[in-house]
Amino acid sequence: MIVFPNAKINLGLNIVSKRNDGYHNLETVFFPVKKWNDVLEVIPSTENSDEFSVSGLNIDGSSDNNLCMKALTHMRQHTSIPPLKIHLHKVIPFGAGLGGGSADAAFMLKLLNEQFQKNFSSSDLEKMAATLGADCPVFIKNQAVMARGIGNEFSGISLQLKSLWLLIVAPGIHVSTAEAYGGIIPKSPSMPINEILTKPIKEWRKFLKNDFEDTVFQKHPAIAEIKENFYRNGAIYASMSGSGSAVYGLFKDKPEITWSSTYVTHLEEIS
To answer: What is this protein for, i.e. what is its function (predicted)?
Structure first.
């Protein structure tokens, strides 16, 4: 069975407060990027143990630490799954705020549930996904949602982005979570994200913020320059996604911008 885990972007990201458990409460909108995909294939293994292989973008670390394998291990805590041969073709840049690893894990859970007819509900799968990463659960239903808490408390949201062009640029700069949070002072936003998103998109630039940008842009001016380049070339709205380093822009017309050959880019018309 083959599935195609997709990327996501964040529309706004406010760090609202620090929790007693050391995590932060936030609010953001997760928006799936349906046409930018990894490829995950799972078939029964002829061996007595799992086999895991990767192609495409290089992934650091052992296979045991890969989120796909962690998803499999977690599923086996709830039900029996036979030995598998698993191949992941990696296309979505990792460590860029695009959720590629989280999507791989969530899609693995959904694949196992369907392939082996386990009949876990979406709610069950979301609970499993939450143990693998804060933004993993969003990829179970894989639709735009307002997220609060540590990014795992979802509510519906209506967005009108159809026919706009979405351009994402990942410069390959690693921004650690600790680095991104280093300059954050949590605060309640003056206007909630879901209220901002009811305004015309041309007004988002004034109100819709990613709290990580100030810290990350100061340390990595090249990331800030990508955002400014979007606006110079006609973006209606542009922002860093998550804690970076990928930056996206929304355009009315298909953008024609030249980028460094070291950058990974993705362009799609939102449908």
So the answer is: Catalyzes the phosphorylation of the position 2 hydroxy group of 4-diphosphocytidyl-2C-methyl-D-erythritol.
